[in-house]
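Saturday, quiet lab. Running sequence design on the structure tokens for the scaffold JK sent over.
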């Protein structure tokens, strides 16, 4: 395993060195190197620098050119305009760098220089409730970020902070006590994790509806349900056993959805709100003793100068309600103590809907004041809303929230139709498998290719389109590459650095070389959409290359053909790795 410095990084360093040699008083100056249409790279840094030091930018640029070492890296450099440098890389340098990437299992991508421990809170559905479209983004984004960070060598601890605690359990458990057979019905499961999950959810829904009906109509039942909450919180054994039963039933359901969504959620990482129950009194005590929180009308509150309601009065974070009950804030505070104090996190991430931004701002600030959370450690990765075609939050025609499974099933159906239409030699079973991979990939890609904070319209027509910025386009590009490699008898193609490169080969090659830098920036900024954009551009550059540079035609000289096959293979591996980091499959045949 050897990390390969990118050409951009190497050129940047060379120009920076030449620049500080030409202008020692500027110190370590940034040459501002970027990719350019004029040449391979353009450096603009001389302009501002010359201006600052009152010298002539063209003269400075000319000195930098003189100072650049001659060698195999740079084929040409010229001063242009008011003092830019246009730099052209030697073809052989491009091929050699790509050869080094291809020789490495990680495609030359380095590990982070100083990896730490990140605790990431994502995919947090609620027990006894359906997963809906709102849980899609948290799950898909969280899964991608976990993969991207782990690939960099970060230690990642996943936390699924499921809603498994609260007053509603009093009602459900009390009903179960009075109707012990309610969850025991013979399973009407269609088999498989998904069928079992759906059957579990059906039972939970029935329990929920039945208990709700009694709760709303029978005052005495309501009182018994309230007492049951107290029994639950004080750890009564019978109550806890039934609570576990409900939680377990929900987990069966969640796993069915996760399987369909093709994400791995491990049981040990599901640490719900209930897990922090025993620490809530300590949280309250410490906050109250330190004066971070104060009693106000009986409730324990934290106030902020800059958080006010519409009436101009401060809106506090309520840690404990006046009736002694705890809400979401107390649990999140206890979780921070656990994650920083016990799990040793140096970064806390929360993949949660943007509408909860104020909650997290107040929770983080409270934890900081209490001394539980070092500065700049916690960060919400807020995401926007999934919209319907009418531009409003996505609802069914009846105005209800959309069940996540229904939406996924529809995507799979639509994708299967696309796969079937294009299928040449696929069996029914293969069509079903590919349909799922394409459909789920389409949903994930549409989500991840949008920057996190933006809302987006859930439009399956667009998502499963073969053209345009879709995963289907990327998956077909990958499958086409594999088909070419199969035709070329499967030997690993050897690069030929001595050959000149066509413009489309250079463009593809330079983009391939950028992979490591993109991954580093995506991991540092938590912006998966940049990886999606990179992969889309990669597939587009590949398409142009494939149109302009025949690979398997008889008239192409053998060494040229092999060099092109080499580019095909490296493109395929880069696409597969990049897609895998987004949680998207790349079938070998489509
Ligand atoms: N369970 C909540 C929901 O479904 C999201 C929980 C977010 N995570 C957290 N640590 N508060 O909306």
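Result came back. Writing it out in full:
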């Amino acid at each position: 395993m050897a990390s390969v410095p990118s050409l951009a990084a190497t050129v940047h360093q060379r120009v920076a060195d030449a620049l500080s040699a030409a202008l020692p008083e500027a110190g370590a100056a940034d040459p501002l190197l970027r990719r350019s249409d004029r040449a391979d790279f353009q450096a603009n840094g001389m302009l501002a620098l010359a201006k600052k030091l009152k010298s002539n930018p063209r003269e400075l640029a000319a000195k930098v050119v003189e100072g650049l070492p001659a060698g195999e890296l740079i084929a040409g450099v010229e001063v242009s305009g008011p003092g830019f440098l246009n730099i052209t890389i030697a073809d052989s340098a491009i091929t050699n760098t790509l050869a080094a990437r291809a020789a490495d299992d990680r495609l030359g991508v380095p590990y982070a220089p100083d990896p730490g421990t990140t605790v990431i809170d994502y995919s947090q559905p609620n027990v006894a409730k359906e997963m809906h479209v709102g849980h899609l983004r948290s799950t898909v984004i969280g899964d991608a970020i976990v993969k991207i960070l782990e690939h960099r060598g970060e230690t990642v601890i996943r936390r699924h902070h499921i809603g498994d605690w609260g007053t509603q359990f009093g009602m459900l458990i009390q009903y179960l006590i009075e109707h012990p057979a309610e969850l025991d019905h013979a399973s009407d499961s269609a088999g498989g994790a998904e069928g079992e999950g759906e059957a579990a959810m059906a039972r939970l829904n029935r329990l929920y509806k039945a208990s709700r009906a009694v709760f709303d109509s029978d005052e005495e039942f309501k009182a018994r349900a309230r007492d049951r909450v107290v029994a639950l919180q004080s750890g009564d054994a019978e109550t806890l056993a039934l609570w576990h039963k409900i939680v377990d039933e929900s987990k069966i359901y969640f796993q069915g959805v996760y399987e369909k969504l093709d994400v791995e959620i491990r049981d040990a990482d599901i640490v719900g709100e209930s897990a922090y129950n025993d620490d809530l009194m300590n949280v309250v005590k410490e906050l109250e003793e330190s004066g971070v929180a104060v009693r106000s009308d009986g409730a324990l509150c934290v106030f902020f100068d800059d958080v006010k309601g519409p009436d101009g009065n401060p809106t506090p974070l309520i840690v404990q309600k006046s009736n002694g009950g705890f809400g979401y804030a107390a649990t999140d505070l206890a979780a921070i103590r656990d994650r920083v104090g016990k799990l040793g996190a140096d970064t806390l991430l929360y993949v949660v809907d943007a509408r909860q931004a104020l909650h997290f701002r107040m929770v983080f600030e409270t934890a900081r004041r209490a001394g539980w959370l070092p500065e700049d450690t916690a960060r919400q990765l807020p995401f926007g809303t999934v919209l319907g075609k009418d531009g409003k939050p996505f609802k069914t025609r009846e105005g209800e929230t959309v069940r996540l499974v229904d939406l996924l099933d529809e995507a799979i159906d639509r994708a299967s139709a696309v796969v079937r239409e294009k299928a040449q030699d696929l069996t029914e079973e293969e069509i079903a498998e590919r349909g799922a991979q394409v459909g789920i990939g389409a949903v994930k890609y549409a989500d991840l290719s949008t920057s996190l904070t933006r809302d987006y319209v859930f439009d399956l027509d667009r998502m499963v389109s073969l053209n345009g910025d879709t995963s289907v386009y990327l998956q077909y590009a990958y499958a086409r590459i594999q088909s070419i490699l199969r035709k070329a008898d499967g030997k690993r193609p050897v690069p030929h650095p001595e050959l000149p490169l066509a413009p489309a080969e250079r463009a593809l090659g330079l983009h391939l070389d950028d992979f490591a830098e993109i991954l580093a920036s995506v991991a540092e900024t938590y912006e998966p959409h940049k990886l999606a954009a990179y992969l889309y551009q990669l597939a587009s550059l590949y398409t142009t290359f494939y149109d302009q540079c025949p690979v398997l035609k008889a008239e192409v000289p053998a060494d040229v053909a092999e060099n092109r096959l080499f580019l095909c293979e490296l493109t395929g591996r880069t696409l597969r790795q990049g897609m895998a980091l987004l949680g998207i499959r790349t079938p070998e045949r489509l």
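Notes for JK: The radius of gyration is 29 Å. The pocket of arginine is lined by residues 121, 124, 126, 161, 163, 332, 350, 352 (CB under 6 Å). Ask whether to fix the surface positions before the next round.
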